[in-house]
């Protein structure tokens, strides 16, 4: 029982770190796009939509991180990790899978 609680805590920490990374990397990408506008052509709408989606997914994952152990919220976190992409999305996905496996076994 104690091992399950520690694994759920580790999964929650992975989700939080991944969500913060998703937010920071999306904000840095926005800043990089804004600073490079005089030198490079503006970003396409698809690239900007992906950055907004990643930023929103990071905030949602951060808000759902306390509910990591509950089955349906953890499935949603796994989907957010897949959609969010990047290193942060990968960490959210790994945290969600860890929580799912811990909860199921």
Protein model, in words:
The longest helix is centred in the N-terminal third of the chain and has 34 residues, at 2-35. This protein has helices spanning 2-35, 45-64, 71-84, 86-104. The chain has 105 residues and is mostly helical. Helix 1 runs antiparallel to helix 2 (45-64) and helix 1 (2-35) packs antiparallel against helix 4 (86-104). The mean pLDDT is 89. The protein has one domain (2-36, 44-104). The chain is 83% helix and 0% strand.
Helix content: over 70%
Number of helices: 4
Number of strands: 0
| Major sheet details | none
Strand content: under 5%
Can you write the helix and strand succession as a string? HHHH
Rg is 16 Å
Report mean pLDDT, rounded to a whole number.
Answer: 89
Q: Unreliable stretches, pLDDT < 50, 5 or more residues?
A: none
Distance between the termini: 11 Å
What number of domains?
1
Specify the overall morphology.
Answer: elongated
SS content category:
mainly alpha
